[in-house]
Amino acid sequence: MGNAVQIVLTLLLLMAAGYFLAARGILNEKASKLLSKLVLWIGVPASTVNNMFTSFRADMLQNAGMGILAPFASNLLAFLAAVAVGRLLRVKKGRRGIFYLMFAFSNTIFIGLPVCQALFGDASIPYALFYYMGNTTLVWTIGIYFVQKDNPAQAGGKFSILGALKKVLSPGIVSFAVSLALVLLGVRLPLFLTKACGYLAATCTPMALLFIGYILWKTGLRNLHFEKDTWGVLLGRILVGPALAYAACAALGAPADMSQVFIVQAAMPAMSNAPILAEAYGSDSAFGAETMAITTLLSLVTMPLLMLLFTVLF
User: Fold this and answer.
1) Looking at the whole model, is its pTM more than 0.85?
2) Which residues have a Cβ under 8 Å from the Cβ of 293 and sit 6 or more positions away?
3) What are the distances in angstroms from CA 222 to CA 11, 14, 217, 225?
4) pLDDT tens sequence across 296-311
């Protein structure tokens, strides 16, 4: 558990660095926009390619069975719950998509994977990555579609097939789909390309967290508050997501060790890339940054409580 707490503290320190740079005038609005574009067009695709080709094999995916189905089911149910809760809370226009994204989908790689490894050992890595697959596929399809709808002008106005395809075919899902197809075909990337993707992938989380620090400075720490929409996201991250993961695993008969990893992944803080996506597609990036910071801070408390709960459930 100590290692998991150290991971969260590291992320908070990177946010603090972004806040400091913004306060000093080094990280300004122009630089923050550049950071968001670099994460969206370079960091996320490189990270996706790097994760797929370094962590997956064709036989692993072909024999995954329940390990693939349960995360897809729980994440889809979580997204439907996000829409229902969003309507119940009457989440205001301009942030509904980012609200759905942060309610339903967690930080599976940058926090979730090392936390699972720290809690359950290396044997948990394949399970954590299976959850990442379900999470990522839905983030870059229905998730990003609704984030873009937060800004009708930027999303392109009236519905069209071409417009819908542009929403779905984002850098994240294209890189994921191409990587998945190549892995299933047994194709291996040249070493120089794998290393290049690895170097670029390593920049994704720091850039995203520096951006969040900038947004927090721009918003002002004194202006951070728990409004009803924030409580809604916390409901998804702390209760609904883990509960649906547990239900999906129980219904599909997933083994205890797999179930515990999926539940931990579902309980992770909101995606660190969410504020970047909000900024890039014209959604409410300030709400995204505030809520991501709050969910990360609260994970210092929720993770130990979750481990205590496992002693009762399993």
Assistant:
1) no
2) 12, 15, 212, 216, 224
3) 21, 20, 10, 8
4) 888 878 888 888 888 8
